[in-house]
Amino acid sequence: MVPIYVLVCAAAWFACVVAGGVVGARRNAPQGGALAGALLGPLGVVVAFALDGRPQCPRCAGRLDGKGHVCQHCRAALAWPEFGEVPKLREEPAPITAQPSLREREEQEAERWAALGVGMSTARPPQPGPVVDPAYEEALADIRADRRKAEAATPPRKDGR
Q1: Within 13 A of 83's CA, how many CA atoms are on the CB side?
Q2: Which of 36-40, 71-75, 137-141, 154-158 has the highest mean pLDDT?
């Protein structure tokens, strides 16, 4: 009959193989993790954390999950080949050119109308000013007068301010 401690050690060693495989699978290296767990036992599980079989971004060398079309680190567009692990950078579309400002668009529109022989003014209509409440202005003037009186009644400071 086999002693109980041998069975416990064998079960613990098998658990290390499984744990190493699970950790390796999360890092795209399940066989390496299981092998490290089988050969090194509990230390192999720790070694499995160091294994990393995930592909790298060609631009920033960040680790990729193998699913996305954009690198989550540098936002580079990726193209995954049919067979193989290494992603390639996709050709990115031409950058969007800056849009003309409102004034430039108005000037272009005026030039188009002028070419057609129709006059179009580029001057903007006058903008209405803020609405002024006389009671508010009066209260504000009173506050400013009170502040001036208080400043005049306060003796000057020693530091000259």
Answers
A1: 0
A2: 137-141
Whole-angstrom Cα distance, residue 49 to residue 63? 14
Q: Encode pLDDT of 52-76 as tens digits.
A: 777 778 778 788 776 777 888 887 7
**3-class SS at 47?**
helix
Residue 27 half-sphere exposure toward CB, CA atoms < 13 A: 19
Three-state secondary structure call for residue 149: helix
- Cβ–Cβ < 8 Å for 109, 120: yes
Say yes or no to pLDDT of 142 above 90.
yes
Could you tell me how many residues make up the chain? 161
**For residue 70, what is the enclosing H or E element?**
none
Which is nearest to 21 in space by CA: 43, 42, 1, 48?
A: 48
**Ranges of H-type helices in 75-130:** 102-115
